[in-house]
Specification:
The protein is α+β, with helices and mostly antiparallel strands and 534 residues long. The chain has four domains: 160 residues, no CATH class; 164 residues, no CATH class; 113 residues, Arc Repressor Mutant, subunit A, CATH 1.10.10.10; 26 residues. The strands form four sheets. The chain has an eleven-stranded mixed beta sheet, with helices on both faces. Strands 7-8 form a two-stranded antiparallel ribbon. A hairpin with a 5-residue loop joins β3 and β4. The longest helix is centred in the last third of the chain and has 25 residues.
């Protein structure tokens, strides 16, 4: 079978399986009525009387909760351990899971001290000099209890409770593990790929099962284990105080299995080669697949991919990150990790998962579309003239976008980057990045000057304003034009000029040698026809 020569070839002709699925999901489990000092004050008065506005009542709840955890561990034969410094919790969970023989249950309970938000009591004085207690928000190092377990439907998970008021919790599971268990239940043959699927006898049904992981199923999963484990609040105190769930971190993975590992290498060679010359903002990086900490010496951003090192491509958008990598030499993984759904116009509540899923997978597809079209960005002569010549659009005169103009090239480099943004971009985004690309003082870019740039991009049909907002999105025409301009300048004109100039280079390259040879042939021809050059 022939080796593919482009990203489009890899994705359209050499794939064997494609899957969109939730990957790791981290949820915040919290008491909405216990998030402010005033609400905590009301809770203490309701359940402990008018004179109980004291952290002493909080300690009573905590002691009861801790005793409940110890009793649960003793009754069920569950180990209660303290995590050691620098110990990887996932490795310990995998070790306990390998020895577990049941269908579901708690593997162990781990304890670790972490800083959390909490409340405390401080004394204050009124105008008569009398002392009274007051609830204030604070932080403290308190024990966190990790309940690591395995579920018959969802697989491995953990539910972490804070041992101090207001007893917030974190819940974590893996969408691919859920999918594997559903495939086994329906007796659909498949082959695992670490944290993914390599082959499946029924890919269509597999995708249906992945799509069926809804917020309602996740909520039932959480409630099931929430009922089985010790509750931080006494039964008499739970009325009106129910936990709610929001999304803290959700990973949306698009996995595309390729026929041969070499096809994946072609993908990354092409993607990396194209993205290195785009001149994008500095938050696009190539990072080696190794752990890097603050103590690791050196700068771990590189534009050189050495033999034997498979890079990952990272694109940061606000607090979120899109990552691409070649998984175990068999699959292309495009994965968007969302830390703040509000960056995509979606609320944090778990009930909004379906809306976030739609936006996230559309973002993954958009990135792949940009990468494919980057190798098929031919520009017609007519379109080139329309962009590089002044035009009149709806009785409005618009200036040309001259090829080679530094401002134009910087604008087009930004258009390629802005194409990734799901909610489009604003004038402020232009103001943030354009001066940096041009190396100019940001104060020189006044609102009027920026509006002028947006206006000519819009009238040339390269961007369009989103209805009812001050945001813009890059059009398909704009993407093609931006790719053609940036590619030609970065891959043709800049290297060619660098080789041709200066003329007295000590080691002229092949282009310079060919030009000299051409000059000699022209001089020879002119001499033969007795025509002297001016």
């Amino acid at each position: 079978m022939s080796i593919p020569h482009s990203v489009a070839d890899v994705l359209t002709q050499h794939g064997t399986l494609e899957l969109e699925s939730l990957d790791r999901v981290y949820l915040n489990v919290y008491q909405p009525r216990l998030q402010t000092p005033r609400r905590v004050f009301q809770y203490l008065r309701e359940h402990h009387g008018p004179g109980a506005v004291s952290s002493h009542c909080m300690r009573q709840n905590t002691q009861r909760f801790l005793q409940g955890i110890e009793d649960y561990a003793r009754r069920n034969g569950v180990p209660l351990i303290s995590f050691q410094k620098n110990q990887r919790k996932e490795d310990l969970a995998a070790e306990h899971l390998s020895r577990f023989r049941g269908t579901e249950g708690i593997l162990f309970i781990g304890k670790a001290q972490e800083k959390v938000r909490t409340f405390r009591t401080e004394g204050r004085r009124n105008v008569r000099g009398e002392t009274y207690p007051w609830i204030v928000e604070s932080t403290a190092m308190v024990n966190q209890y990790y309940f690591y377990g395995v579920d018959a439907d969802f697989g491995p998970f953990f539910l972490k409770y804070s041992s101090y008021f207001p007893y917030g919790a974190k819940f974590c599971f893996n969408g691919h593990e859920y999918l594997k268990r559903q495939l086994r239940k329906e007796k659909i043959a498949f082959e695992e790929l670490a944290n993914g699927i390599l082959r499946c006898a029924n890919p269509q049904r597999m995708q249906q099962l992945a799509n069926g992981l809804t917020c309602e199923k996740i909520a039932r999963f959480l409630r099931k284990w929430h009922r089985r484990l010790p509750h931080p609040l006494a039964r008499a105190e739970r009325a009106g105080y129910r936990y709610q769930v929001s999304m803290t971190q959700v990973e949306f993975a698009l996995t595309q299995v390729v026929l041969q590992p070499r096809h994946g290498r072609v993908f990354f060679e092409e993607v990396i080669r194209e993205n290195l010359d785009l001149g994008r903002p500095e938050n696009i990086q190539l990072i080696f697949d190794r752990r890097v900490t603050r103590r690791t010496p050196g700068v771990f951003r590189t534009r050189v991919v050495r033999k034997g090192v498979i890079p990952s491509l990272y694109v940061d958008y606000k607090t979120n990150r899109l990552k691409q990598y070649f998984k175990e030499g068999r699959a292309l993984r495009t994965e968007l990790t969302v830390h703040n759904p509000r960056d995509f116009g979606v609320l944090r509540g778990l009930e909004h998962l379906s809306a976030l899923r739609e936006v996230a997978f559309r973002t993954n597809r958009r990135v792949l579309h940009v990468q494919k079209i980057s190798q098929d960005f031919a520009l017609s002569e007519q379109l080139f003239e329309e962009v590089t010549q002044p035009q009149v659009v709806d009785d409005q005169r618009v200036s040309a976008l001259r090829f080679g103009d530094p401002t134009v090239l910087a604008l087009f480099a930004m258009l390629v980057w802005f194409r990734f943004l799901p909610q489009g971009f604003r004038r402020g985004d232009l103001q943030e990045h354009l001066p940096a690309l041009l190396g100019t003082d940001p104060r020189l870019w006044t609102p009027g000057r920026l509006t002028y740039q947006l206006r000519r991009l819009r009238l040339h049909g390269l961007i369009e304003r989103l209805t009812g907002s001050n945001r813009y999105q890059v059009t398909e025409r704009g993407l093609r034009v931006a790719l053609w301009f940036t590619r030609c300048h970065a891959r043709v004109f800049r290297p060619a000029l660098g080789e041709l100039l200066p003329e007295d280079a000590p080691t002229p390259g092949p282009l310079r040698r060919a030009l000299k040879q051409f000059d000699r042939h022209v001089d020879k021809y002119l001499h033969a026809i007795n025509l002297q050059p001016a």
